[in-house]
Amino acid sequence: MDEIIARILSGESSAEDMLLLSDWLSQNQQNRREFKKLKSYWDAEVSYTHSISSELSLERLRLSIEKNERIHRRKRLFALWTPLAACVTALIVVTNLYLAKESPEQKEAFTYVTGSNKADVLLADGTRVVLNKNSKLTYTNEFGEILREVKLEGEAYFDVQKDSLRTFKVVVNGASVNVLGTKFNVKANTSDQSIKTTLLEGAVSFETNTKRVLLKPHQQLIYNKLTSSVNTRLVDGDEIVAWKDDILKYKSKSLQYIMDDLSSIYNVKIVILNRELSGVVISGSYEQDESIDHLLTIISKSLEMKWIKKDSVYYIK
Question: Which residues cross the membrane (predicted)?
Answer without folding.
Answer: 77-99
